[in-house]
Amino acid sequence: MSAPVISATMGAMNPLIGKLAALMGDEYKKLTGVRRQASFLKDELSTMKALLEKLELMDELDPLAKNWRDHVREMSYDMENCIDDFMRDIGGADAKMGFIKKTAKCLKTLRKRHRIADRMEELKALALQANERRMRYKIDDCTNSTNNVVPIDTRMLAIYKHTAGLVGIDGPKKELVSWLTDTREKLKVVAIVGFGGLGKTTLAKQVYDTIGGQFSCKIFLSVSQRPDMSSLLGGLQLKLEMKEELTHAHEVQDIVGRLREYLTHKRYLIVVDDLWDQSTWNIMSCIFPEVGNGSRVIVTTRMEDVAIWACGNDHECVYRMEPLKEQDSRMLFCNRVFGSGNVCPLQLKEVWAEILK
């Protein structure tokens, strides 16, 4: 699997935490006060990092959360520059130096250590201020609150994208089709995992269209990040045209029971698109009965742990998407920019490689 994409914020935070950990090592054991401050900073920043990772996964952030995220990123860069200066300044006296030179260097180093201790206090104050702003602006609530504004779902474009415009999908589609059309009669769950924008939804839809005719019941269901399970499962009832059941089932448990009963009599293919957490899957999986008739479920997710969980810890059923290869990237670029002719003008050929990077 290719290395995950690291955001600008994480790119600033990760090296800083690593350098603070280095300041706590044996090499700096004489700097007791500095090590203590480094330990405090590392703990504070690690807590901020955990929240930042949650914010990175959200499709939409409110202005306050964006402002706080950007502030922490800039603060991280400033802190890292200071730590780099500390590490460069602090060093032992050269064994080949004479007594006078060694003494002079020690005095100079002592003054530097005092300056470093003062600067570490300033960095500690910056971290405390950032966490205080986090509490005051209630940034943590952004990861739990729902948004009343209904955004345009860009995955809809992937679902209805014309096959002719797709690039680099034939190989992955063929592999997944082979996984899903084996002779195994037991219910099989296959997960497609990868970061946002790789084309998981498009791939799932292509596989769905290819093998859907082999099943008596097929549904493509989009989940989203914070689903209302009652609405989601009620929508699934509508897709299955279970009209006679809609007026009787209001609780999630009731809807799950009715869906499970309905699917017990079907050989089904269901796509659960854009699954974000294990708890949602724990509910969703209850509607899929195991009746030994070759039913199949496809899950798409950005989360490796969710993909593995959905597949019952069967790593062989997890398809890890990778970015397009260079040749496919070039083809896609030409297709998008120059139309279906896929021909790049001669005067641009020297720069298009740089654009692709």
Describe this protein's structure.
The protein is of the alpha/beta class. The chain folds into three domains: 8-143; 155-323, 3-Layer(aba) Sandwich (Rossmann fold); 324-357, no CATH class. 54% of the residues lie in helices and 8% in strands. It has helices spanning 8-23, 32-56, 63-89, 99-136, 155-159, 170-180, 200-211, 229-239, 252-263, 278-284, 304-310, 326-338, 349-356; strands spanning 188-193, 217-222, 268-275, 296-301, 318-320. The protein has a five-stranded parallel sheet, with helices on both faces. β3 (268-275), α10 (278-284) and β4 form a beta-alpha-beta unit. α1 packs antiparallel against α2 (32-56). It is elongated, with a radius of gyration of 27 Å. Residues 172-338 form the NB-ARC domain.
Strand order of the largest sheet: 2-3-4-1-5
Poorly predicted ranges (pLDDT <50, ≥5 residues)? 1-6, 92-107, 146-152, 245-249
Rg (CA only): 27 Å
| Overall geometric form | elongated
Distance between the termini: 20 Å
Structural class: alpha/beta
Supply the key terms.
13 helices, alpha/beta, Rossmann fold, five-stranded parallel β-sheet, elongated, 54% helix, 357 residues
